[in-house]
């Protein structure tokens, strides 16, 4: 059995530098879930349709199943695990998803939260329509999206320090 050649890459994941070997065809999601053990990034569809694998790459929301690991070399990746430390309070988005019942089975939640995080970094006071647009690439089979939009609005208000 022949093995594929690997390339040594260095990337920063959740604030910590990692140097790893990656095959040229290895997806970022595989690197995150495999060698790095960050299983909060989910694989839902293998076709980049569902958004469950969404992470932040240099602050931009990307579907990590559509990015090669070698494309992340020298860049910063933030996963759901990187939003708050284990011994720290939840990130306002995580808190709001819980408080507003913006999750049920939880499978899509990491991708939804990461997409919302990118939105709020660009637009701290989004309208419902802007939230819906930002989450268009994320599918949820459980909640009907109403509570997810409410959660993003609550987090925006919390992060901005006031009511929307």
Automatic annotation (TrEMBL):
The keyword Nucleus does not apply. PROSITE patterns: 2FE2S_FER_2. Keywords: 2Fe-2S, Iron, Iron-sulfur, Metal-binding, Oxidoreductase. Residues 7-83 form the 2Fe-2S ferredoxin-type domain. Its cofactor is [2Fe-2S] cluster. Gene3D superfamilies: 3.10.20.30, [2Fe-2S]-binding domain. It comes from the Bacteria. InterPro entries: 2Fe-2S-bd, 2Fe-2S-bd_dom_sf, 2Fe-2S_ferredoxin-like_sf, 2Fe-2S_ferredoxin-type, Beta-grasp_dom_sf, Diverse_Oxidoreductases. GO terms for molecular function: 2 iron, 2 sulfur cluster binding; metal ion binding; oxidoreductase activity. PANTHER family: OXIDOREDUCTASE WITH IRON-SULFUR SUBUNIT. This is (2Fe-2S)-binding protein.
């Amino acid at each position: 059995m022949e093995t594929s050649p690997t390339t040594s890459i260095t990337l920063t994941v959740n604030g910590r530098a990692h140097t790893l070997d990656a095959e040229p065809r290895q997806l970022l999601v595989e690197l995150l879930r495999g060698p790095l053990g960050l299983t909060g990034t989910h694989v839902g569809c293998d076709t980049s349709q569902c958004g469950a694998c969404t992470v932040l790459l240099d602050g931009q929301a990307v579907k990590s199943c559509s990015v090669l690991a070698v494309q992340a070399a020298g860049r910063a990746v933030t996963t759901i695990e990187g939003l708050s430390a284990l011994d720290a309070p939840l990130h306002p988005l995580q808190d709001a998803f819980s408080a507003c019942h913006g999750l049920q089975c939880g499978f899509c939640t990491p991708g939804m939260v990461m997409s919302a995080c990118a939105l709020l970094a660009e637009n701290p006071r989004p309208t419902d329509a802007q939230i819906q647009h930002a989450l268009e690439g994320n599918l949820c089979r459980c909640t009907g999206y109403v509570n997810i939009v409410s959660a993003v609005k609550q987090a925006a208000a919390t992060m901005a320090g006031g009511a929307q």
